[in-house]
Amino acid sequence: MSAEFLRIHPDTPEERKIRHVVDVLRDGGVIIYPTDTIYGLGCDIHNTRAIERIARIKGIKPQKNDFSFICHDLSHIADYAKVGNMAFKMMKRLLPGPYTFILDVSHRVPKILHTNKRTVGIRIPDHNIPREIVKELGNPIITTTIKDDDDIIQYITDPEIIFERFQHLVDIVIDGGIGGNIPSTIIDATTDDFEIVRQGLGPAEV
User: Fold this and answer.
1) N or C: which end of the chain has fewer CB within 10 A?
2) Where is the YrdC-like domain positioned along the sequence (predicted)?
3) In the chain, alpha helices (H)
4) What is the C-alpha to C-alpha distance for residues 150 and 74, in angstroms, rounded to an integer?
5) pLDDT, tens digit, 9 for 90 and up, residues 24-59
């Protein structure tokens, strides 16, 4: 069965379409969606079967994942990660934006996601589509990158090409326009000695 190709306005997402996406997520669906960096592959973090589907698509075990969470705002983050005062101040300054913050997990993170890990990546992208999805859903969604088989291109930016590649693996591919090809900047904020793990689109303002 082929996925649905759903166009959503990137600046003013249509409420009806956002609700439809959320219904699919609540039913265990897997979606591909735009962010402020590259397109992401994701599902509801509380749906074990959907997480396992994403792991199969990525060719990894769920417990050995590099998944991050997309949250709607800073108040969402404290529910799933432990945030120190200095880290909170930096996140307040840089988010929403093209950053992933590595933080210690809280007890609310589903066990399938941290059996062998004590940290989690947290994102609040500067993009209305994923943030409105999370707001309507009421909890974070997983985000993990989709890569091209071409080592030079690395990331697929055209949603129509993404649909051609993934239409039999996911339930919805959201067209929010051409995506970027530079991933987020990853900052380890588990201690006050912040460390840039990967330099990406976000300026190094640690």
Assistant:
1) N
2) 15-202
3) 15-26, 48-58, 74-77, 85-94, 111-114, 128-137, 159-166
4) 36
5) 999 999 999 999 999 999 999 999 999 999 989 988
